[in-house]
Amino acid sequence: MATPIAPNRASFDAAAVAHATGGRVVRAKAGRVATGFTTDSQAVVAGSAFVALRGETHDGHGFVGAAVVAGAALVVVERGRAPDETSVDVVEVEDTLAAWGAIAQAHLAAWRSGRPDARVVAITGSAGKTTTKELCAALLRTVGPVHATAGNLNNRVGVPAVLLQLDAGHRFAVVEVGMSVPGEIAALAALVAPDVAVVTNVGLAHAGGVGGRLEDVAREKGALFAGLRAGGVAVANADDAAVMGETRRVPAGTRVATFGGRSSTPGRAGGDAVAYRLASREPLGLDGSRLTVDRPGGEPVSLVLPIPGEAAAIDLVAALAAAEAAAAGPVDAAGAMRALGPIAGRMHVRRGHGITVLDDAYNANPGSMRAALGTLAECPGSRRVAVLGEMRELGPAGPREHAVLGDAVADAGVSLLVSCGGMADAIADAARARGVDAVKAHDAAEAARVVAGRVLPGDVVLVKASRSVGAERVVAALLDSPEIARDAPAPLEGAR
């Protein structure tokens, strides 16, 4: 489910690249400017630039020759690795990944200098950051042109790629910021320098990579607040103590705007007024929710959010706080939601063969799993079915967090659960102990075959797992299946 990187029109000559990256021009043709920067040699076109990244399993320096043959005007390589070809400009740097970010940072600075009303919103969180990003972008499009992160381009390769696509026509950039290793958000915050920084919540997602504890995740997420530009706004979840604790890191000259759910105490959060609050929500089943949102200095906002569940409603409140901070005024929230399309892999309601699939297969962690099961509980159908895979990168808490989800499965009224192997089997064991019909498949491919053979017309099926599980195969099997079972046969041979 990796997102392809779209081309860009960023333009620099070798001297400008060397200045931005702290590198050295090895050779350059006078007056030559490279347009379009990429890390993929197959995406090189005549006159573009190729940055040779080196990772754990690949080395882009092995493709410099191919980039030159494809017409690259400029290549950026590590020191001592300049190619012999004299037809191409060459800049050597200490670290090509850092250089990739520095080139994007220079492009961002040029974009900002070209229009005083330019604003950057950066969004992170353990759950809901992609939905919040999509909602924020939709809200801001009612004010001006928006460029937003596509798919999962939220790491040290993806974020620069997103920034390089900015052009003079954009007024807003909405950037998703992810985390898998210590210091990643701090590095990206320094690159993006957001005008508005949003932390949706803090949970154990990716905790294994940063120390394993909730406070470790909070420290990493809070780095986005610390990276705010002067005059910026930190948008913080008033209902999450870990998020509120990180607001102490906002720089001087910035402010904090809080958001919260219906359980928030109206008007108070950590001693400050709750700026945006979900005042009411009427579930509309698969059609979403009817919401009323209180906001500061204005009339409450009433709208229909076409995404089901309480979690999506909270994401909308966060997005509204961020959008109005970036726009420095109200946005047409109701109009934006009327124009909103589905968000792939995020509680995407899909129908086929008499069943409804809640496609939430893009990612999973304990908080988002509980939220998804809560959404499933609100959806009408003959039966509620769940296909759940592992929540990965949780560190030492992984086994326990899977086991306790069995109660959430039962409480959601799930009739049939199919797990996708690994630690997800613990969910099935615990749910079975609560009386749920639970089948343990070896992996997502087998889970797809099991559930396709057991679902009935009228069922509502939730599919959710960490991205590396490949649970999108389950969605495909359900929607592409020529027949949905009329009975409930025994599990396929080999299912556990």
Give me some keywords for this one:
alpha/beta; 9-stranded mixed beta sheet; about 500 residues; 22 strands; 6-stranded mixed beta sheet; about 20% strand
Quickly describe the structure:
With 496 residues, the chain is of the alpha/beta class.
Strand percent estimate: 15-25%
From the helix content, strand content and strand pairing, which structural class follows?
alpha/beta
> So what's the oligomer here?
single chain
In percent, how helical is the residue content? Answer: 25-40%
Cross-sheet strand order for the largest sheet: 9-10-8-11-12-13-14-15-16
Evaluate the radius of gyration: 24 Å
Number of strands: 22
Give a short account of the largest sheet. Answer: 9 strands, mixed
Low-confidence region ranges: 266-271, 483-496
What is the straight-line distance between the termini? 27 Å
Q: Kindly state the mean pLDDT as a whole number?
A: 90
Global geometry = globular
| Number of helical elements | 15
Describe this entry's structure for a reader:
With 496 residues, the chain is of the alpha/beta class. Helix content is 32%, strand content 21%. It has 15 helices and 22 strands. The chain has helices at residues 14-21, 64-69, 96-114, 129-140, 158-164, 184-192, 214-226, 241-246, 310-327, 333-338, 366-378, 398-411, 424-433, 444-454, 472-480, and strands at 11-13, 24-27, 33-35, 37-38, 49-51, 74-78, 89-93, 119-124, 146-148, 172-176, 196-199, 233-237, 255-260, 276-283, 289-294, 301-305, 348-352, 355-360, 384-388, 414-419, 437-440, 460-464. A hairpin with a 2-residue loop joins strand 17 and strand 18. Helix 3 runs parallel beside helix 5 (158-164). The model is unreliable at 266-271 and 483-496 (pLDDT under 50).
